[in-house]
């Protein structure tokens, strides 16, 4: 991170207090207003782009973009605000200084604290389970933990060949210690002799991590190979699959429902 050709992203946000949420009362499901400051670095601080994004009811309506040097409306709701803010020369000048005042300054702070350029190697395990004991299908969870930065590539291989059908990706979850975890599910019907591999590539690794799993016997035969116990994840009890990775249901016409999708987030999307 921060090296040549590698972008670095810095985010900061603020959530406005919602009337009626004081005194321990439950916060409404949708917040009313949120701001997010975003810095995009390329080649260290050689190229810096500063964005100040404004959200109402989970939708971005306006933003300041240092690449344009002005506010711009994202939706019709933000048109009036963007025009008014652009007429305020003092506010506009203040936002223009955000590249140095906010982005470059915080970059130096994070660099001194070993945040910029920090890398943490992932650990990988496989957890097999069956949702239906009578079904020949087996659910394999590849669980990747403790990696940083968030960019990572996880793939399933069957007998050395990439598997694409029956694969579902969960979301990268923050662990609260500047590391992330990810689960990737494979629903398959193991045959005698099949070997499944979870392969992980990450910036912290010189070579990919590979973890293998092999079923026991023919499809439908109870039990798993004893080698599985080495890879079984202790935090995922046998027979349990996270709801976000439940295989899609099929309707009466044979079509899939509840298709798992994890879109990439950008400034125009609701921040976490």
From TrEMBL:
Main location: membrane
Keyword Signal set for record: yes
Membrane-topology annotation of the record: Single-pass type I membrane protein
Keyword set includes Membrane: yes
Region described as Disordered: 213-272
Biased composition (Pro residues): 235-246
Gene Ontology process terms (BP): adaptive immune response; antigen processing and presentation of peptide or polysaccharide antigen via MHC class II
Alphabetically ordered keywords of this record: Adaptive immunity, Disulfide bond, Glycoprotein, Immunity, Membrane, MHC II, Signal, Transmembrane, Transmembrane helix
GO cellular component, as recorded: MHC class II protein complex
Polar residues composition-biased segments: 258-272
Signal peptide range: 1-16
Gene3D superfamilies: Class II Histocompatibility Antigen, M Beta Chain, Chain B, domain 1, Immunoglobulins
Localization (cell): Membrane
PROSITE patterns with a match to the protein in the record: IG_LIKE, IG_MHC
Annotated Ig-like domain residues: 122-210
Classification via Pfam families: C1-set, MHC_II_beta
Protein origin, superkingdom: Eukaryota
InterPro entries: Ig-like_dom (IPR007110), Ig-like_dom_sf (IPR036179), Ig-like_fold (IPR013783), Ig/MHC_CS (IPR003006), Ig_C1-set (IPR003597), MHC/Immunoglobulin (IPR050160), MHC_I/II-like_Ag-recog (IPR011162), MHC_II_a/b_N (IPR014745)
PANTHER family, per the entry: HLA CLASS II HISTOCOMPATIBILITY ANTIGEN, DRB1 BETA CHAIN, MHC CLASS II-RELATED
Name of the molecule in the record: DLA class II histocompatibility antigen DR-1 beta chain-like
Origin species: Crotalus adamanteus
């Amino acid at each position: 991170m921060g090296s040549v050709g590698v972008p670095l992203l810095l985010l900061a946000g603020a959530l406005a207090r919602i009337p009626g949420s004081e005194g321990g009362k439950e916060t409404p499901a949708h917040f009313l207003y949120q701001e997010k400051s975003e810095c995009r670095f390329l080649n260290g601080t050689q190229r810096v782009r500063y964005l100040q994004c404004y959200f109402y009811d989970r939708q971005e309506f306006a933003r300041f973009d240092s690449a344009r040097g002005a506010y711009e409306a994202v939706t019709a709701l933000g048109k009036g605000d963007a025009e008014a803010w652009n007429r305020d020369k003092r506010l506009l000048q203040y936002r223009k200084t955000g590249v140095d005042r906010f982005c470059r300054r915080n970059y130096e702070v994070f660099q001194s604290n070993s945040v910029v350029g920090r890398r943490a190697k992932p650990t990988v395990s496989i957890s097999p389970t069956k949702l239906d004991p009578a079904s020949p299908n087996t659910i394999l969870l590849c669980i990747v933990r403790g990696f940083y930065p968030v960019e990572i590539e996880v793939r399933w291989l069957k007998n050395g060949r990439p598997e694409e059908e029956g694969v579902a990706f969960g979301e990268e979850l923050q662990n609260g210690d500047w590391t992330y975890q990810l689960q990737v599910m494979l629903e398959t019907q193991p045959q005698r002799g099949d070997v499944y591999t979870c392969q992980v590539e990450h910036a912290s690794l010189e070579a990919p991590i590979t973890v293998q799993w092999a079923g026991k016997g023919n499809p439908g035969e109870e039990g798993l190979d004893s080698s599985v116990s080495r890879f079984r994840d202790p935090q995922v009890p046998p027979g349990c699959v996270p709801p976000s990775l439940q295989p899609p249901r099929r309707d009466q016409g044979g079509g899939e429902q509840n298709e798992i999708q994890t879109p990439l987030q950008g400034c125009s999307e609701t921040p976490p």
